[in-house]
Design a protein that fits this description.
By secondary structure, the protein is of the alpha/beta class. The chain has helices at 25-38, 68-77, 86-91, 108-116; strands spanning 10-15, 42-47, 81-85, 104-106, 120-123. α3 links the parallel β3 (81-85) and β4. The longest helix is centred in the N-terminal third of the chain and has 14 residues, at 25-38.
Amino acid sequence: MADTTSAAMSLLLVINHPPHDGTDVAWNALRLAATALEDGLDVRIFLMNDGVDLARPESQPAGAEFDLSRMLGDLMDKGAVVRLCQTCLERCGIGRGQVMPQAEVAGMKDLLDWIKGSDKVLTF
């Protein structure tokens, strides 16, 4: 008898854009992640470069239209897995205690493994 179960499609979003730079790049990445989760995809998010600021709740500027850190936290609560580039955290002077505890610190090998194991990879 054939196995009729199928694994959910996996989507990897690599966000390296600063979250609060006057564009909607990070916001749109998070919106896509939410839509993918709602559609049943396995969602993984790797934050690099200035994108690591998404995982710092205190990085939200006063008067910002969207609370991107809260959006990221909501995604993790709904099943998205988030990893932060360790080298990028160090280069930005961000300590482990300054980021959301649910986000994992990872390296390039971890990102490569995620790329190899993902059906789709998008960068923002």
